[in-house]
Design a protein that fits this description.
The structure is a homodimer.
Chain A: H1 3-6, H2 10-13, H3 24-27, E1 31-40, E2 43-53, E3 59-63, H4 82-87, H5 89-92, H6 97-102, H7 108-117, H8 121-129, E4 133-134, E5 149-150, E6 156-161, H9 170-183, E7 187-190, H10 197-206, E8 212-214, H11 216-223, H12 233-246, E9 250-253, H13 275-287, H14 292-295, H15 297-307, E10 310-313, H16 328-346, E11 351-355, H17 364-374, E12 380-383, H18 395-409, E13 413-415, H19 428-448, H20 454-466, H21 470-475, H22 480-490, H23 511-524, H24 526-535
Parallel strand pairs in A: 6-7, 6-13, 7-8, 8-9, 9-10, 10-11, 11-12, 12-13
Antiparallel strand pairs in A: 1-2, 2-3, 4-5
Chain lengths: ~550, ~550
């Protein structure tokens, strides 16, 4: 690692003409970006949060992923983690968050995520040590604001960006990164397969405050001109090092696609739908040899450990249709991923497990159960799953249904799906739709799994709604811009923002307005109601409010 | 009932300047509208379905709600049910589908829905007789193509339309009706509360091939200038008769909002959010008397029976926020609805039960369990539920998550929510988004509950996807127009519709293309794989494909 890889070179930026996206203030009216100032081992750190200012003079604080604002992407964002890493650089090679945690040390990253999640740092350390959570934080990614991924924490979401051979622009990908984190992406994967893979990734890294994941086999394949049969372990490891030097925080590696599993996909409706999985299957068949990512796994662990890159063990045999869900190929690979998890942990390398894909509602629980069991509670990271195959153009929705469900069961990170899934490369608007939809799924999961404080947000917004504090309702929402816009479409005047009704029902039929009158009537008759209250029939099993 | 109420009068149409919506052919490229010709008791009937023509020379048939096409709304659509009803008119007053079913008679409506669902007519009769399913079919709604609602049948969805005091146009509401059924609404509720309630409903009825529901208390309230305290049972019944004469197929009636439940809402975050519920609560408190819809329920049953209008027993105390979900008020009302169900059934009146609202994922199952238990398996009909309160502008999604879940548990009909929920009156685009989103939820539920044939649709589309039959994939989708549009945005040429890749991955990285090559390789090595297959490790519990 040299400084030149960390400092963007304007001359190399070429295509990177900054694109203009709306500002934080435009996206989050009524919110300010704040930070909690911490000191840990002599290091000052600013833990970001977003403060929503309410008309009641109060405020509501929310987790914030938006990162530093207002920097020219050709300069990159500040390297907030540089001093933390520098301080331990002499001894830190080969030390990972897991190794520190097992040694009983609370790192700056652990202290940071503990403050961010509102939990004890010791609890974070324990979860990392046991492998139930990960902090993907390559020591070369010094722009990072650390994030913890594990089922006892806030459910995280990932946004996929990256070019393809038919579409390519570095500026557009950096814009998608910024747009993703503006709306709530906790991590971003750069899945570029087109031109300028290295340069695109460099500009993404230098502008990313969130962990960046990649699928290194894509670049390895580019290096052999797209011929899977020319892939080798050495070439793959060379690619890992190249990407690790740039600061990539987690690698998807399809080491569970074993030769003996490939024939199990022969009768599937949709065969292999993982790009990495199909590449490795082709290699295995060409040589009739075991997957070199599997046989070379310990060598790969050495690189991961050197930079503290986290494994995201890829599900190369994931189902691409309901018909193929939970089949022998998928479940066989899952067990292999569990076996590899144990090897990675032996090297103190952090591990996440990737999951499907396309799964009908009634088969989702089995995925979560089997993953926890066979992968020893390593964090699960699923794509959706989509609960039906028949709605291309709406797969952010078909998959959010599955994502909210598996999240509520304990899936730690949900990889978003955009409306363009199965149809084309997402543009900026699709990225926003995907991110907001997945924040909905993740938050619904957090409420369902009883995460401390999660429902407070719902209660704050609902109270604002009930009290006709329209501005507060909009400011507290997942996407204030859209909420304002939709309200303005029928009642554009500022007066409507203080009215005790909306255009859905009009003034006479507003249930919430009438409830106010009902409550006044109840207050007037409080003595009568004291009597009535004693007569009220409370059904057994009903939740008391 | 006179002929004049059934025959639209062009002079009265005033505002009804037909609006132009895309045609069936434009919405469903590659599909044709077909029908199965049946004869029952000497009556010919055409049971509609949609045939999707595939490039393989095959076809795939789907349930069709689009209704007769190409009629001027000022003339209304054909009265396909007129002869069925006329034939039994002498004896049919006071006879309902439930009464016929209990008498062992299979009506034309039962034969129609049996063919439409692909089940035995005797099975339909039994489900109706037992109250587990309903066929909302007012004898005055002769334009109806009957629909069955029950958990052993295809999950249905409802679209809400209707004007409000701030927005009103008959033509716009008729357009929303047509647009709703074009995309898959099984029933439509006219929730108008603004001007021209009677005329708006008339034009909706005369153009609707799907069952129409209303909330009669809205019109009753209009008749007393918006003052709930002036409402009386007589006025309400007069309104029921007026609407029943027009042909309304089901009425939402908030007869379970009992005086003693109202104080239970005092400490709620969002009080009462049902318009009908809040109106009745206000009436109860004003007089400190029991809800007249409850005390007068048997009189109401007489009207329902006379026209065979189905009850949709309203959940006036449904929660309007996660905080209020499953509380004592809601559960108390649910038990009262069960009590009323028994009374309605005594009169042979069909019943559905309405449900919430806002419910976090982990509390949804309790709603379904309690409803089945306390309402004796009468069909459940829920609004969503929304699984989080924090995403105004995206409540079609927050609620589709809840809807798919409760549908998979046995909820018979899902009332859609549009993106404008909580913000304003939906326009035509919102209606389409709501309907398609809810068709996704309903179909996902059908797959999960194992409805015969449901997954065949997913398999047909997935196979088309895998075989790069792009046109077939789009034609088989929930919304071909959007699928084509999204694909065209990145690869607009006709060549791309036969290409073995898309813009997501480009040609080199297409997993499905590589799978084709993998399969060829497997075929070449079939003898080796026969051997390998014997060595394949099949994990216990894995589903064999």
């Amino acid at each position: 690692m040299t400084d030149t890889t960390l400092t963007p070179n304007r001359e190399e930026s070429g295509e990177l003409t900054p694109r203009s996206i709306p500002t934080f203030q435009e996206c989050w009216p009524g919110s300010t970006k704040e930070s909690l100032e911490l000191e840990h081992n002599g290091h000052k750190m600013s833990v970001p949060f977003r403060r929503v200012h309410l008309s009641t003079e109060g405020h509501f604080d929310l987790y914030d992923t938006t990162g530093p604002q207002g920097f020219d992407p050709r300069d990159g964002i500040p390297k907030v983690r540089e001093s933390w890493v520098a301080n331990r650089s002499d001894q830190s090679r080969g030390w990972t968050q897991m190794r520190w945690a097992r040694a009983g040390v609370i790192t700056e990253e652990m202290a940071f995520v503990a403050a961010r999640e509102g939990v004890e740092a010791e609890f974070v350390r324990l979860e990392i040590a046991e492998g139930r959570a990960v902090i993907p934080a390559n020591r070369c990614h010094t722009e990072l604001e650390p994030v913890i991924i594990g089922r006892k924490f806030r459910t995280k979401i990932n946004s996929n960006i990256g070019n393809s051979a038919t579409h390519s622009s570095i500026a557009e990908e950096v814009e998608k990164l910024q747009w993703s984190t503006m709306w709530g992406a906790d991590t971003v994967m750069d899945l570029s397969t087109g031109e300028n893979i290295h340069a695109t990734r460099e500009w993404i890294m230098r502008n990313s405050s969130v962990p960046i994941g990649t699928v290194p086999i894509y670049q390895a394949l580019e290096k052999v001109n797209g011929d899977p049969e020319k892939l080798t372990l050495d070439l793959f490891i060379e690619t890992l090092v190249e990407q690790a030097e740039q600061g990539v925080d987690y690698f998807t590696i399809h080491a569970g696609v074993l030769l003996r599993f490939v024939p199990l996909t022969a009768d599937r409706v949709t065969g292999l739908v993982s790009r990495g999985g199909s590449i490795m299957a082709k290699w295995c068949l060409a040589y009739h040899e075991e997957n070199f990512l599997y046989t070379g796994f310990e060598k790969i662990c050495e690189v991961m450990k050197e930079y503290d890159v986290t494994f995201s063990l890829g599900d190369g045999l994931r189902p691409g249709s309901l018909a193929d869900a939970n089949d022998a190929a998928q479940m066989g690979e899952l067990r292999t991923l569990g076996e590899l998890t144990q090897i990675a942990w032996k090297h103190d390398v952090q591990v996440m497990i990737e999951g499907p894909g396309h799964v009908p509602i009634h088969l989702i629980q089995e995925n979560m159960d089997e993953q926890l069991k066979h992968c020893f509670e390593a964090p699960f990271y699923t794509l959706g799953p989509l609960v039906t195959d028949v709605a291309p153009g709406y797969d952010h929705i078909t998959s959010a249904i599955g994502a909210a469900n598996i999240g509520s069961m304990g899936c730690a990170m949900l990889c978003y799906v955009t409306p363009k899934e199965h149809l084309g490369l997402p543009d900026r608007d699709d990225v926003k739709t995907g991110v907001v939809t997945y924040r909905i799924a993740a938050h619904a999961a957090d409420v369902a799994k009883g995460l401390t404080g999660a429902r407070d947000w719902d209660d704050a917004l609902s109270l604002a709604r009930f009290e006709f504090r329209w501005h507060d309702q909009f400011r507290l929402s997942m996407d204030p811009v859209t909420a304002y816009d939709f309200h303005d479409q029928t009642l554009p005047s500022e007066n409507a923002k203080v009215a005790h009704f909306c255009s859905m029902c009009g003034p006479k039929f507003c249930a919430m307005k009438i409830t106010g009158e009902v409550r006044e009537a109840m207050a007037d008759k409080s003595s009568e109601f004291a009597q009535l209250g004693r007569e009220v029939y409370v059904p057994e099993g009903a939740t008391e409010v």
